[in-house]
Amino acid sequence: MTRRPSRLVRVLSPALAAGTLLCTASCSDDGGTDGSRVRGVTASQVAGERQAPSPTATLSTDGARTALITEADIEDDWTQVKDTEAENWHDSLLIGTVDVSDFLTAKTQASDCRRLLGSLFDDDLLGRPSGASELRGFQQGDSRLLYQVASYDRTDPQDSLNWMGTLPENCDQFTVTDGGEKRTVQVIEIPLPKAGDARQGLRVTVQGSAGGDDATLTLDVAAVRVGDDAITVTAGGLDGDENDSAQQAVRQGTQRLKDVLAGKSPAPSPN
Length: 271
What we know:
alpha+beta
């Protein structure tokens, strides 16, 4: 897959100029969520109780492509878009300068919050993949769902999962300023299905304006590690959260990735 241009040279797509978003989504084993997880239990704590890692092979580009979810995996009225379109999804509400006065330990916390917004804008929540990487985008009204499968064999995706687990505390609420406009950002933890070797879910809410009108961008963000590979899902938009679709994408996508790594053909998507 052609590598996307760097953030500095990207241009916001017209479809997102009004504040629409890029995203991906996921789902739980049986429509429910992992009720055993509570606020404050981070990915690092989960990793401390790690079971034997999932058997993995080297993830090839073809394998990553096969592991991508389809419209049937997330149900509802999602429509798959062209890869080139999904690669250029960026939300202008995520751009801005983090107000360090919001933090008690400004240097550390503000840096974490800047990293969060930047990684959501650049579609690299777990850092740049060191191996194969494929993504797929879906659209439903003003909502977007961006789904990525990638290999991190020369980096450690667990480190990024641990970092994600600190964000509900370090970035629980902060202010971003862009062109004189102030936006309020809130970050909370959301439960995910028991999938993969480790996982972390967040909901990021940005309150600001789009086209001169008040607007709230809601993103459900999920990352699941399977060995040295991972799936990431960002789903949401101005219409509200897309938690059900995000949960479904996690459930179906993790299993597809595990099947590919085990040398199996992923099971047909549900109708």
